[in-house]
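The methods section describes the discrete structure representation at length, but only in general terms. What matters is that the chain and its backbone geometry are given together, residue for residue. Nothing conveys this as quickly as seeing an actual entry. For illustration, here is how one protein appears when written out as sequence plus structure tokens:
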Amino acid sequence: MINKIIHSAGYDDSEKLFLSSTIGKTKFRGDIYGYVVEKLGCNPEDILHIGDNYQSDILNAKANGVLFFLIKK
């Protein structure tokens, strides 16, 4: 289902998507950030995470060295 939504939004299979539901890592726990860095083979500061939850999207991204942008609700 999520793949259908993602493809309808214009993403194709060349894009790297990391879905917590399929990899068992979450923003809330913060373990997804290190996983993504490892899988992409990049530095944390090479990633920009965009989200609207201060704890999961900002504090946990920052704690893992990932750049972040907060979308205000």
About this structure: The first helix runs from residue 2 to 8.
